Amino acid sequence: MATVLITGANRGLGLGLAQLYAKDGDKVHACCRNPDSASDLKAIEGDVVIHALDVEDPKSIAALKAAIGDEPIDILLNVAGYYGKYIVSEPGGMQDFGDTDYDEWEKINRINVIGPMRMAEAFADNVAASGQKKLITLSSILGSIGGNDVGKMYPYRASKAGANAIMRSMGLDLKEKGITALPMHPGWVRTDMGGPTADIDTETSVAGMKKVIAGLKPDDAGRFIAYDGSELPW
């Protein structure tokens, strides 16, 4: 059985992935900011260890590393993410030119770019010590520069393009450790972040991602892949 570390595991895609891996008998280190209020996460049956984690806070990441120690981590899933204070379907949710909230942009960057980088640097040796050696950051097709034909969403697009850039570099730099690192697009999913008008449900997304992750090979390092296995333009 695998050992999986998941950030943002208290709801949405993180919760769905935690449920699937636990159901299959894997050990899950499930991380969220407020474990006391994570009732759905605490209800998962199986080998699930819940940790408090705020990916914006380097001290919180260091505390998680101290708690886990040198335990091998087969799959590190950076799921925690932030779109902004308004979702796409709400007024202000398109992050139009001229309406930029720069404080929010900094928060989006801290969570979506710097958080996954800190997690990777903290746990790369744990991943390298495992059997599967996989390091995944959930990105978005909105981070694709080649795929952008509608504009808007400046802070979020920039953060996910940044996440793609760091994961592309990790895909190259961590090969010497045997790690397969890459960004993955979960689809536009009906979650609290994605909103009610999104294309697919959580179950479809997490089942697809889990299948794709299970089939990853070392040569896949640095690719930009969607939940259905298709490759996306940078």
- Mind describing the biggest β-sheet? 7 strands, parallel
**Nearest-integer average pLDDT:** 96
Q: Please count the helical segments.
A: 6
Helix percent reads: 25-40%
What is the total tally of β strands? 7
The share of residues in extended strands comes to 5-15%
Strand order of the largest sheet: 3-2-1-4-5-6-7
Q: Uncertain segments of ≥5 residues (pLDDT<50)?
A: none
User: Structural class given helices, strands, pairing?
Assistant: alpha/beta
> What is the succession of H and E elements?
EHEHEHEHEHEHE
The rounded distance between the terminal residues' Cα atoms is 34 Å
Global geometry = globular
Radius of gyration, in Å, reads 16 Å
Task: Describe, in plain words, how this protein is organized in 3D.
The structure is a single chain. The protein has about 230 residues and is of the alpha/beta class. The protein has six helices and seven strands, in the order βαβαβαβαβαβαβ. It has helices spanning about 10-25, 40, 60-70, 100-130, 155-175, 200-215, and strands at about 5, 25-30, 50, 75-80, 135-140, 180-185, 225. The protein has a seven-stranded parallel beta sheet, with helices on both faces. The longest helix has 27 residues, at about 100-130. The termini are far apart. The mean pLDDT is about 95.
Write the layout of secondary structure elements.
Elements (H helix, E strand, L loop, with lengths): L2 E4 L5 H12 L3 E6 L6 H4 L5 E5 L5 H11 L6 E4 L23 H27 L5 E5 L15 H20 L6 E6 L16 H13 L10 E2 L8
Helix pairs in contact: 1-6, 3-4, 4-5
